[in-house]
Structures are given as C-alpha cells and as structure tokens.
Amino acid sequence: MRLLSIAILFLISTSSIFTQQLQTKYETKPDWIDEFPDGCTTITVGKLASYDGSVMTSHTDDSHRTRSEFDIMPPMSFEPNAKVMMYKRVPDNSKKMPAYKFEPTGEIPQVESTYGYINTAYPCINTEQLAIGESTFGGKEELKSDKGLIDCTQLVRLMVERTKTAREAIEMAGNLLEKYGWNDDGECLTIADPNEVWMFEVVGPGKDKVGAVWAAQRVPDDNISVNANASRIRKIDTNDPDHFMFSKNVFEVARENGLWNPDEGEFEFCYAYADRNSLAARRREWRVFDLAAPSLKLDANSENYPFSVKPDSLITLEKMVEIFSDYYEGTEFDMTKNLTVTDDSGRTIISPLANPQMPYDMNKLLKINGGWGWRGERTIARWYTMYATIIQCRSWLPNEVGGVVWLAWDNVASSIYTPIYNSITRVPESCSTPGRENGYTRNSAWWAFNVLGTLSAQRWGDMRHDVRAVWDPWQAELFKNQKAFENEAAKLLQTDREKAIEFLTDYSYDWQVKVFERAWLLTEELWTKYDELF
C-alpha cells in the first residue's frame, strides 16, 4: 500500500511530464490541450468596483513549462544608440523537467532609461505602478507569422521597462509591433495603472508578414472583467477613444483574409481573429462573474458573456482569493461529486480521497467527464499553476507603496498570497531558485508549495482543512494589517526614502521566508498525520 501511495504521489508530482506526452499533435504548443490554450486566468477590477479604490489586475501562470522563480530588475540607463535583443520562447526538453528557452530574433533600439520591475516569468509590475496580467487565447493559425521579432514575454518586458500608464503601454506596443512584428499566438494582456485597467488582445498579421493586429478595451471603473484563454473583445466603437484603442489594420486584415464580410454582419474582434469554442474557457468566465455578481444568474453554458459586469458588492482581496481558489465545489460541475462512499452512519458522502486536482490520466482512470470532455472541468484553481498574482495599483499612495503584488506559489487552493511591493530591492533565495530546469530541490519556494499541494490532494477531503487552518489565519492577518503597515511606510518615505524601501523590502522578504519554511513543515505534518490513509 505504501509503495502504491508513493507511486501515485510521484505520478501527480510529475504530471507535467505525462501531460506533455498526451500532446504529440501539438508538441510545439506545450501549454495547449488539443486546439485550445490550457494556460492562464486573469481578472481585472476597476477602481470603483474595488473595496478601497484600488485598480486590480491578476494572473495565474498555469503552465507545464514556465519558470517559477523571479527576481528584481532595477532601473537602468543606457548609452545613446544602444540596442536590445528580442527573444522568442520555445520548448526546451534538455532540462531536468520540461521548460522553455529563449532564442534571439533580432535587435530593436534601446531607450535611454528603463523602470525597475518585478521579473516574474511575465514581468508583473514596475516601479511606476504599471501592472500586467496575461492569458493566451490562441487566435487563427493562418495569421501567425515567424517574421516578427517580439513575443509575449518580450512585449510585457518592454511595457514595464518603458511605460507608466496602461494607455502608454498599449500605444507603445502598437508602434513597436507595427514596425518589428509579433511572432506569438493570440494573447491577452490585462494592463492596469493606478487609475484604470484595459484588456489588450493581439494576434499575428498573416503568414510571413511583419506587424500585428490588435484591439484594446477599457474595463469600466465600476466593473470587473475576466480573460480565461478566449478572446473577449467583440464590437469596437471607433468613436469612443476613452474605451477603445485598436491597430490601423484591425478591419483590413480580417477582410483580406476572409475572416469578416461587412455584408454579413458587424465586425467582432473575437470572432474574426479567434473563436469562442472552448467551454473550458467560457465556464471560467461564467464562474468568475457568477461569484462576483450572482444576481445576474448567468447561464453556465452560454457562448458569450458581457465584457464586464458590475459586482453585487465591492471586490475585496478576500473575494479575489476566493475566486482564484475555486474549483466549482458545490456546483454541478464539481468533478468530485460522483466520487462517493458510504460513511459509518450509512450516509453517502464524497470520498475524502476524491480531489478536484486530478491530473488528466487520473480523470481517465476515474472516468471523469465534463465541459472539457474526458478531462473533466477546467477549474480556476489548477494543480499546474507555477505562481499566481493579485496586483493592486493605488493612486492615493506613493508609487513605492501603492503598487503591491500579492503572490501565491503553485495551486492557489493550497497556497497563500503574500505581499511583494513594487519598490523592493531583493528577494530570498527561495524565490530566485529555479524550480523546473534543475528538477526537485528543497531550496525553491515553488517546490515547497508544489509538494504540499500534491500531497494534500491525495486526501483532499481531510487535508485541505489542515492546510487552510495554517494559511487562513496568516492570510487574514496580512490583509488586516496592510493599511497600517503601508501608512507607516508612506510616512517614512517623507523623511527617508532609502529607509522606507528597506522597510518594505524586509516585510516582503520576511513573509516569503516565513511561508516557505511553513510549507515544508506543513508537508511533514501531513505525512505524519495521514500515514497509511492515502
């Protein structure tokens, strides 16, 4: 029994590898399942929809290859006429685990100076409170071009290095992509600053062409929105520059490629340049809106949902964590609902061994079916998340304090969000230690939470309560103390900026160390408590 349990644990711990073997048809797209992206979820919140006036964006980096580690990139200055190399991300199977490598595509002119930023796999915020989330939606294959220099990771980096506001970032992206070209799949970036948040969607210009096609739509201040691996922008109001931005060729490319006939109907970006066929994407859209605005009573099987909705109540950090931790528990889409046993009193209950974090081959074994076919349901919380962010941008605070990334490692359902301020200067070794390319290590924060999440999934019905008993009080403490801590930091900034930055750095650093050490200890406690019970 123990050998079987260990074998199952190892299988789930390395499920990324086995998942890769299922994708031979799409081996150049390792974060896709069949023809659909299997990647990330991003939720945006306008300043009048949040509990404190924050503008929020967010991101779950759900990937079988993305790097887990991050570090801090400081502001930099460059000589006149300097160049900067662009790179294209491609699968790399030469490491201990599936990863990505970056191949050079060409140079573009460097700017005189760049802002500092938090260098996650997709750089997430800069020192000016420009923050970005990401979600791949794929787009039409015939539009993809290998002639461009810029992919998604490079574009995000250029945005945080060079711009201060969402509109600046979108305008700069449009100019650079027109000149140097996009070489990636269809992508959505959710771009926030202290005043507003936009959804920016981009696809290629066509085979062997240089350029890009893109559109951006602003999320109304009193609304929330979501992107979950499907294009969301539909009609573009060309007379409303306060809510829409778009490339000069957005209609032309669709007509030329037979993707839109003006005689047959009004132009809709998401149908011209992508599709709405993935129920795995649409159901997450429904779930986010249903949790935030249940009064709307949206249909879980709809093809389309509003671009954004007004939440029933102001969105708090606690609500964001709740949404990102969700796996359809209590709904008809709960993958554990039929994994039942009879307890000692004769009641039929969901087995404590049932869990919503099953790798795909376990779904097959247990004959789980759902909106994603034999893969069940594509939940918001996932077992292959590398890291997740909830980012606050706040206009009433100094930049050094106003931008904060709440970062969780691995599966959000078994993790905790801790604050990383956009002005900090260093992170613990656990944050900067690679998690994938060198394989298992106890020095990596991602591995600490990956092991914890994998173990707790083995008897989820019981172990999840042990996990939440540790993390929930700390999460509540962090949220409760946030305002007082930030007020102290802002006050310190008025007299000693260097000391204030160190104050913020120490706070972020210490919490990362604290949860890293506690995650390993909690794993040991669960092994001991549940010995022979899984």
Account of the 3D structure:
The chain has 534 residues and is of the alpha+beta class. Among the domains are: 17-324, no CATH class; 327-379, no CATH class. Helices cover 32% and strands 21% of the residues. The strands form 8 sheets. The protein has a 5-stranded antiparallel sheet, with helices on one face. Helix 3 (152-162) packs across helix 4. The longest helix has 34 residues, at 460-493. It starts with a helix and ends in a 5-residue tail after the last helix.
The whole-angstrom Rg is: 23 Å
Helix content: 25-40%
Largest beta sheet, briefly?
A: 5 strands, antiparallel
Strand content: 15-25%
Total DSSP helices = 14
For the largest sheet, list the strands in their spatial order. 12-13-14-15-17
Question: In total, how many beta strands?
Answer: 23
The backbone outline, from C-alpha atoms, is globular
> What gap, in angstroms, lies between the N and C termini?
9 Å
Unreliably modeled segments: 1-27
The overall pLDDT average reads 94
Q: Give the class from helix and strand content and strand pairing.
A: alpha+beta
How would you summarize the topology of this molecule?
Elements: H1 2-13, H2 15-21, E1 32-33, E2 36-37, E3 42-45, E4 55-62, E5 71-73, E6 76-77, E7 83-92, E8 99-109, E9 113-114, E10 117-119, E11 125-126, E12 131-138, H3 152-162, H4 166-180, E13 186-192, E14 197-203, E15 213-219, E16 224-227, E17 244-246, H5 252-256, H6 269-273, H7 279-292, E18 308-309, H8 317-324, E19 340-342, E20 348-350, H9 360-365, E21 385-393, H10 399-402, E22 404-409, E23 418-421, H11 429-432, H12 445-456, H13 460-493, H14 497-529
Antiparallel strand pairs: 1-2, 3-16, 4-21, 5-10, 6-9, 7-8, 10-11, 12-13, 13-14, 14-15, 15-17, 16-18, 19-20, 21-22, 22-23
